[in-house]
Write a structure and sequence with these properties.
Radius of gyration: 32 Å
Structural class: mainly beta
Helix content: under 10%
CATH class of the largest domain: Mainly Beta
Order of helices and strands: EEEEEEEEEEEEEEEE
Strand order of the largest sheet: 6-5-8-9
Number of helices: 0
Largest sheet: 4 strands, antiparallel
Number of domains: 2
Strand content: over 45%
CATH superfamily of the largest domain: Immunoglobulins
Distance between the termini: 62 Å
CATH topology of the largest domain: Immunoglobulin-like
C-alpha cells in the first residue's frame, strides 16, 4: 500500500550494554500511484462552445505520495514542452492539448487530451440588392467564414430585426421606402460582424 513506513531492526549485541546501539531504523516510501493533472481553460465562450477570445490554459498537477517532478504538454501535436506557467493559445481554429505529469517515484500519468476551438475573426459580407416587381427590393448577403462557418444572417431595417436566414443564399425581400439596412452575419460562435 502507498505511504511512508519506518522499518526498525532490533539486534541483540552481547557485548554492548547501551540500550540504543542495537536498534537500526530505516525510512521507506512506497508510491505506486500515478500523479493526476487537471486543466482549466479560460476565455470568452460564444455560441456552440467556440471561444471568441484568446484561451489561457492552466495545468494543475498533484501527487499524493512522493511528489511531482514535472508536468509536460504538447499543443496541437507539436514538440513536448515542460509546463511552468499558464500559457495563451491565440490562433483561430481547432486545438488539442495533450498533457501528463511524472512523480519522484517515476510514475507517469496516462496522457490526457483536451480539445477546444477558437474563432476571433469576423465574417466577410458582400451585400447586393435588386428591384423585384413594384415596391420591393431583394437584398442578398454573400457571407463567408473560414473557421467556424456562418450560422445565420440577420436582416435589420431601421435597427429592427426583419428576418433571420439560416441557409445560403441569404436573402430578404423588403418594400421600397427610404430606409437604412443593417445586415450582420453571425458566426457559428455567436460573433456578428457589427
Amino acid at each position: 500500500e502507498d505511504g511512508e513506513y519506518r522499518l526498525e531492526i532490533l539486534t541483540d549485541l552481547a557485548t554492548d550494554n547501551y540500550p540504543t546501539n542495537d536498534l537500526f531504523e530505516l525510512g521507506l516510501g512506497v508510491d505506486g500511484t500515478d500523479p493526476v493533472t487537471n486543466y482549466i481553460l479560460d476565455g470568452t465562450i460564444g455560441d456552440n462552445d467556440w471561444y471568441v477570445s484568446d484561451v489561457t490554459v492552466t495545468l494543475d498537477p498533484s501527487d499524493e505520495y512522493s511528489g511531482l517532478v514535472e508536468t509536460k504538454y504538447k499543443l496541437d501535436g507539436g514538440n513536448e514542452q515542460i509546463y511552468t506557467d499558464p500559457f495563451d493559445v491565440t490562433e483561430d481554429g481547432p486545438h488539442a492539448i495533450e498533457y501528463w505529469s511524472v512523480d519522484i517515484a517515476g510514475n507517469e500519468e496516462s496522457h490526457k487530451t483536451t480539445d477546444f476551438e477558437i474563432d476571433q475573426t469576423m465574417p466577410i459580407i458582400d451585400l447586393t440588392w435588386e428591384a423585384s416587381g413594384l415596391n420591393k427590393i431583394i437584398f442578398t448577403a454573400a457571407c463567408s467564414d473560414n473557421t467556424s462557418g456562418i450560422n445565420r444572417v440577420e436582416f435589420f431595417l431601421q435597427d429592427a430585426l426583419q428576418s433571420t436566414d439560416n441557409s445560403s443564399p441569404y436573402a430578404e425581400s423588403l418594400k421600397t421606402m427610404l430606409f437604412i439596412v443593417t445586415i450582420p452575419a453571425v458566426l457559428s460562435v455567436g460573433v456578428n460582424s457589427m
